[in-house]
Design goal:
Elements lengths: L7 E5 L2 E4 H23 L6 H24 L1 H6 L14 H19 L3 H19 L1 H6 L13 E2 L14 E2 L2 H22 L10 H18 L7 E2 L2 E2 H19 L22
Antiparallel strand pairs: 1-2, 3-4, 5-6
Helix pairs in contact: 1-2, 1-5, 2-4, 4-5, 5-7, 5-8, 7-8, 8-9
């Protein structure tokens, strides 16, 4: 697998636009387009995702960067000027999820919209954005795995190799593995969201719980390959968050069918608000 020769895509009037930013923005746009399509499919207002996007994106970026800063607080205490420079990377998916969900909840309350219905749609679109955004790690030569001589292994420059693997040049493209698996998650969740109104099995919010379970499992598996994990105690930080996501997903999926019954899929059509198909 080739590597990018330059992480900078283009320079305009002295401003460098990096591939990392292009992949992240492309992922956001793709996720928004998918949300609009799913909203139409569900008889909801397709413009609401665009209206909410600025607030959700800002909150997600704050969460993504804030969590990263907490994990590397000692470094940024010595380099405070780099704290807000996200062009070089340093965004965490788990932090983005927390920030984005909180903003979506507040916006849905403000607009009088059913939060879990929109959260299901957002959960189906999120892994598409993640799948595209992960290619920013390729551009920055980060988030790769252990050394590998597979045909699809990615070439990493010496400056980006972990010291213990300095003699190796090719590594598992962990970002690619996660990108492919994210697309699989998206396919499953899109099917769930589209099937909900016609099935008595699904409950409002189920796409969110299934996302938590599937992404938690995927991230746990991928993290076991990576060489640049941020640690909390003896384990990578992503392990703790993955366990939390899986636990939340399983507990809520069961709870919505037992102690906290949720609205069944066949009853969701009556909750549709806005433009119909």
């Amino acid at each position: 697998m080739p590597k990018l020769s330059d992480p900078v895509a283009i320079s305009i009037f002295g401003l460098s636009i990096r591939w990392y930013a292009i992949f992240i923005l492309t992922g956001i746009v793709a996720a928004l387009m998918l949300m609009r399509w799913l909203a139409r499919e569900r008889g909801l207002d397709p413009d609401l995702p665009l209206d909410a996007a600025p607030w959700v994106i800002i909150a997600a970026l704050i969460g993504a960067r804030g969590y990263y800063l907490l994990l590397k607080w000692s470094y940024y205490l010595d380099h405070p000027g780099e704290a807000i420079n996200i062009r070089l990377g340093g965004l965490t998916v788990h932090g983005a999820i927390v920030g984005g969900i909180l903003a979506l909840w507040l916006y849905a309350r403000h607009r009088g919209q059913p939060f879990l219905t929109w959260a299901d749609i957002a959960a189906a679109a999120l892994p598409v954005g993640q799948a595209i955004g992960r290619w920013g790690n390729w551009a920055n030569q980060e988030a790769f795995g252990r050394p590998s001589d597979r045909p699809w292994a990615v070439t990493i420059d010496p400056a980006h190799r972990p010291p213990e693997y300095a003699e190796y040049s090719t590594f598992h493209p962990a970002f690619l593995y996660e990108s492919v698996l994210d697309l699989f998650i998206a396919i499953v969740l899109i099917w769930i969201v589209r099937t909900m109104p016609r099935s008595a099995f699904w409950r409002e919010g189920d796409a969110v719980w299934v996302y938590c379970i599937l992404y938690g499992l995927v991230r746990f598996a991928i993290e076991s390959l990576r060489t640049d994990s941020l640690m909390i105690g003896p384990f990578p930080a992503a392990y703790w968050l993955s366990w939390a996501l899986i636990s939340i997903g399983v507990v809520m999926f069961v709870a919505r069918r037992t102690v906290w019954p949720g609205t069944r899929g066949i009853d969701l059509e009556s909750q549709s608000v806005g433009v119909t198909k």
